[in-house]
Amino acid sequence: MRLNDDTGSSAFRIRTYGRQELACLYFPTSSPRSAWRRLKKWIMLNPRLRETLAPTGGMSLLRSFTPREVGLITEELGEP
Q1: Pick from 20, 61, 55, 60: which is nearest to 69 by CA?
Q2: Residue 13 and residue 61: Cα distance in Å, rounded?
Q3: DSSP, res 15
Q4: Within 13 Å of residue 44, how many CA atoms lie on the same side as its CB?
Q5: Residues facing residue 18 across a β-bridge
Q6: Are 63 and 18 contacting, i.e. CB atoms less than 8 angstroms apart?
Q7: How confident is the model over 18-44, as pLDDT tens digits?
Q8: pTM, whole model, 2 decimals?
Q9: Which terminal residue of the chain has fewer beta carbons within 10 Å of its beta carbon, N or C?
């Protein structure tokens, strides 16, 4: 996880994120809906991540990511 540097810029934090909120961090120039579709595709194309997140009840029903899930996503995809 990145820490704040001396310039005062904000760092990515592991916390609960709404699915579109997190997706927009990965795809800041996309609309929230489009960003979510793209992030969902990245997750579905990553077998390890897809299997790890599967017990949460399915990606289409998911409205937010827990801090644990955000940690897993950033571990596989990198920080946004």
Answers
A1: 55
A2: 24
A3: S
A4: 9
A5: 64
A6: yes
A7: 999 999 999 999 999 999 999 999 999
A8: 0.80
A9: N
